[in-house]
């Protein structure tokens, strides 16, 4: 293009006007060059920040995926582990409940037997003084009868002594 078409619509007529116009154009050009350089710096800065943000987003995405995988694995392990522990403790509880039932039954048997034994011992202990007294009386009666029956027939005497002796033995057995 011709130089005249690029210049402002008004043509400077003097050298000082031309110098001023050139100076004005240089200043404008310098300012535009500076703005262009700033814009390129901003572009490079934004490109760098975008790349860093993109890289960071990729890393965060990978980390999130890894954490999700670990969380799913941990949840599976927890679920399976809880089921295993629950099963183990349920088995132990059942075994312990069976053992408790066994011991309760044994306790019941021993308590019942002890109560019967104690009842029998108390009954015998209560009867002992009375039976001892009866035993002493019967022994005394035997001695008296033995003296009284000496003059009688020996066969009658033996039958009576045997009968009284049986009564003494029965009372003695009851006392035991």
TrEMBL record:
Biased composition annotated in UniProt, kind: Basic and acidic residues: 23-40
Q: Where is this region: Disordered?
A: 1-40
Q: Which UniProt keywords apply?
A: Coiled coil
Coiled-coil ranges from the UniProt annotation: 79-113
Q: Tell me the domain of life.
A: Eukaryota
Q: What is this protein called?
A: Uncharacterized protein
Q: Which organism is it from?
A: Ceriporiopsis subvermispora (strain B)
């Amino acid at each position: 293009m011709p130089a005249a078409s690029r210049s402002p619509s008004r043509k400077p007529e003097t050298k000082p006007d031309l110098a001023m116009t050139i100076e004005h154009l240089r200043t404008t050009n310098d300012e535009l060059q500076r703005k262009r350089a700033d814009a390129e710096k901003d572009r490079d800065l934004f490109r760098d920040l975008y790349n860093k943000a993109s890289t960071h987003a990729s890393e965060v995405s990978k980390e999130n995926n890894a954490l999700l995988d670990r969380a799913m694995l941990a949840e599976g392990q927890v679920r399976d582990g809880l089921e295993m522990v629950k099963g183990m403790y349920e088995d132990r509880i059942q075994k312990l409940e069976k053992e408790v039932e066994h011991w309760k039954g044994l306790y019941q048997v021993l308590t019942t037997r002890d109560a019967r034994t104690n009842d029998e011992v108390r009954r015998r202990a209560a009867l002992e003084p009375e039976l001892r007294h009866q035993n002493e009386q019967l022994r005394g009666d035997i001695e008296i009868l033995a003296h009284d029956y000496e003059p009688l027939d020996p066969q009658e005497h033996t039958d009576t002594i045997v009968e009284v002796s049986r009564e003494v033995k029965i009372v003695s057995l009851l006392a035991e």
